[in-house]
Specification:
Elements: H1 2-23, E1 43-48, H2 54-62, H3 66-81, E2 95-101, E3 107-110, E4 115-121, H4 122-128, H5 134-153, H6 168-183, H7 206-219, H8 224-234, H9 240-248, H10 256-267
Parallel strand pairs: 1-2, 2-4
Antiparallel strand pairs: 3-4
Helix pairs in contact: 2-4, 3-5, 5-6, 6-7, 8-9
Bound molecules: zinc ion (ZN).
């Protein structure tokens, strides 16, 4: 009898633990395919420009070796954007400068070509660690990295205005960065989640466009993000509408507005 109770208890406990693991949204990073494991995403030059801050101490405690951490997550971004290391479109990055800074904001990318940089603020680290939740800080830091490193490796669509005018080019750049972040699991992948902002148009960019792109990947083409990224090298002038038809087939239902409408109906927003 005792034995039976023990077995039952053990079973109940392990099922509980498993359920907890399943619902924990700060899950393990996505798996890297073998072909990317040895790819050199660029040398990392790590600088701590705010060593006196609490955020810096927290960062070093949780991420004692920033270089492999950044490189591994860079490979996850590359895997999401490209088929494999031999893809000729991959920008060859020589150096990724990565700095902890005590400034306003969260994180940003600077520079282009083969020398890029990412700043990450110690204030945001402190805020993300306010419940002393190590998993949450790792999840947030990786998510921010996915976004900023997408800017380092993504292609830049031509003939559709400039980033600064907030139009189709800007929407591609920021929508893809958040789309990669969702696809890598560092925004909640449930379309009902509060991580997904409700909006009337994909033109709002960032997560609004990012979740739309992720839905297209799940429902239209598993390589959608890769093909959409590649369309920036294949079309000139580029546009969201042309790129959708280029990737999914030149049919009226594959226009960007038609797909956006289909998406909103499918997830229950319309
Ligand atoms: Zn961005």
């Amino acid at each position: 009898m005792k034995k039976i109770i023990f077995v039952l208890l053990a079973a109940t406990f392990s099922m509980g633990a498993m359920a907890q693991l399943k619902v924990n949204k700060y899950h393990e990073p996505i798996k890297l395919e073998k072909k990317w494991l040895k790819y050199n995403p660029g040398d990392v030059v790590f600088r701590d420009e705010a060593p006196q801050t609490e955020g810096s101490k927290i960062y070093h405690n949780i991420i004692p070796n920033p270089t492999p951490y950044i490189q591994e997550n860079a490979r996850r971004v590359l895997q999401t954007l490209y088929y494999g290391p031999k893809d000729k479109n991959i920008p060859k990055i020589k150096t990724i400068n990565y700095s902890l800074v005590n400034e306003d904001g969260i994180s940003w990318k600077y520079g282009d070509g083969d020398n890029v940089g990412v700043c990450y603020t110690t204030g945001w680290i402190e805020k993300s660690f306010k419940d002393n939740d190590t998993m949450r800080l790792d999840y947030e830091t990786r998510g921010v990295l996915y976004h900023e490193l997408t800017h380092a490796y993504q292609l830049d669509p031509q003939g559709c205005g400039s980033y600064g005018d907030g139009g189709e080019n800007w929407c591609f750049i920021e929508g893809m960065a958040d789309g990669v972040r969702v696809a890598c699991g560092c925004f909640d992948q449930d379309f009902k989640s509060n991580d997904r902002p409700r909006a009337d148009t994909w033109r709002k960019g960032y997560r609004v466009a990012g979740y739309f792109l992720y839905w297209l990947m799940l429902n239209k083409d598993k390589d959608f993000l890769r093909k959409f990224n590649a369309s920036a090298a294949e079309l000139n002038p580029w546009s969201w509408d042309k790129a959708m038809k280029h990737v999914l087939g030149d049919k009226p239902e594959n226009g960007v507005e038609e797909l956006w409408d289909e998406y909103l109906h499918a997830i229950g927003d319309r």
